[in-house]
């Protein structure tokens, strides 16, 4: 064994040195050099750290550095995330986005410019004045449209979504709310009164019929039964015989 190689390595190292750390890694782990001050030591990791990308070879898997402006990368020339101040576009980190694209400060990417999109105008509303549709001759009517797609920072802004124009209606009087309510209340009371009157009349009629029926039954109970008329022939026959 080489004098600089230690036995019983820790942290995924296959071989290691007391001074240089890991010299080789166990299968599927990545070897990377980490700088500590003026010293570099080897470590073995399951995935490469930020600013590095992994490469696999038959004899060793190792982490290689991304370009200076990349925070993470797939290969050295294909970035997946840029460092602060750069915008990602097609795997590259740019200080300024190409023409036709805009910088998205939220994702730090160059994205397509999005213009505003709106729906068609709605039908005109009824002619109104101060929230009413009666009691005036000249008023206003409006129509609106909805925003379907809001624009991006450099996209075309949305137009006005509301339009108003003057209108003329045939003058008509507004029904007073209090009077209308009073009339409805009076009609309701009258209807309830008529229903109550009909109910009382029906109750009186039933009571009268019941009283007449009871009176007839009482009369039939108190009136004496009529006796049958005597048979004249039977009453006179003994008298004639005696004579």
First CA to last CA: what distance?
181 Å
CATH names the topology of the domain at 7-65 as Hormone Receptor, Insulin-like Growth Factor Receptor 1, Chain A domain 2
Biggest sheet, strands in spatial order?
A: 1-2
Q: Low-confidence parts lasting 5 or more residues at pLDDT below 50?
A: 232-243
CATH architecture of the domain at 7-65: Ribbon
% residues in beta strands = 25-35%
Radius of gyration equals: 54 Å
Task: Report the principal-axis shape.
Answer: elongated
Largest sheet: 2 strands, antiparallel
Number of helices: 2
Class per helix and strand makeup? alpha+beta
User: Based on DSSP secondary structure assignment, what is the total number of beta strands?
Assistant: 16
Please give the share of residues in helix: 10-25%
Overall mean pLDDT score? 81
Name the CATH superfamily classification of the domain at 7-65. Answer: Hormone Receptor, Insulin-like Growth Factor Receptor 1, Chain A, domain 2
Protein name: R-spondin-3
Subunit structure: Interacts with the extracellular domain of FZD8 and LRP6. It however does not form a ternary complex with FZD8 and LRP6. Interacts with WNT1. Binds heparin. Interacts with LGR4, LGR5 and LGR6.
Family: Belongs to the R-spondin family.
Pfam family, one: Furin-like_2
């Amino acid at each position: 064994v080489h004098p600089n190689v230690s036995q019983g390595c820790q942290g995924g190292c296959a071989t290691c040195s007391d001074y240089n750390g890991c010299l080789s890694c166990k299968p599927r782990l990545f070897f990377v050099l980490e700088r500590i001050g003026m010293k570099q030591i080897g470590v073995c990791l399951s995935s490469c750290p930020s600013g590095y990308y992994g490469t696999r070879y038959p004899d060793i898997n190792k982490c290689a550095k991304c370009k200076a402006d990349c925070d993470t990368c797939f290969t050295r020339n294909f970035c997946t995330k840029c460092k602060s101040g750069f915008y990602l576009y097609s795997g590259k980190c740019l200080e300024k986005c190409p023409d036709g694209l805009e910088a998205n400060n939220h994702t730090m990417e160059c994205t397509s410019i999005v213009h505003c999109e709106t729906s068609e105008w709605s039908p005109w509303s009824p002619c109104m004045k101060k929230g009413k549709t009666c009691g005036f001759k000249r008023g206003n009517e409006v129509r609106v449209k909805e925003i379907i797609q809001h624009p991006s920072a450099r996209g075309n802004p949305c137009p006005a979504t509301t339009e108003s124009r003057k209108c003329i209606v045939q003058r008509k009087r507004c029904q007073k709310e209090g009077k209308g309510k009073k009339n409805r209340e009076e009609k309701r009371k009258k209807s309830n009164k008529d229903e109550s009157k009909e109910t009382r009349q029906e109750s009186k009629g039933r009571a009268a019929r019941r009283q007449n029926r009871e009176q007839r039954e009482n009369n039939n109970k108190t009136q004496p039964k009529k006796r049958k008329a005597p048979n004249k022939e039977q009453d006179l026959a003994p008298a004639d015989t005696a004579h």
